[in-house]
Specification:
The chain crosses the membrane at residues 27-47. By secondary structure, this protein is an all-alpha fold. The protein has a domain at 26-53. Helices cover 49% and strands 0% of the residues. The model has no long low-confidence stretch (mean pLDDT 79).
């Protein structure tokens, strides 16, 4: 290889992302969204049971 040319990945994978917390997913926020979705489904279920019974 030439010296100026960067080393190429043989399978054309993108370069690895740096490890660290700046790009880490927000699991706390995701958990809150999931809990909110479950509570919404429970509320809809209770409301529909109250309307149709």
């Amino acid at each position: 290889m030439m010296q100026d040319e960067p080393e190429r990945n043989p399978m054309d994978h993108p370069p690895e992302q740096p490890s660290g917390s700046d790009g880490a997913p927000k699991f706390g926020r995701l958990l809150l969204v999931l809990v909110g979705a479950v509570l919404l489904i429970v509320a809809l279920t209770i409301a529909s049971e109250a309307m149709y019974s």
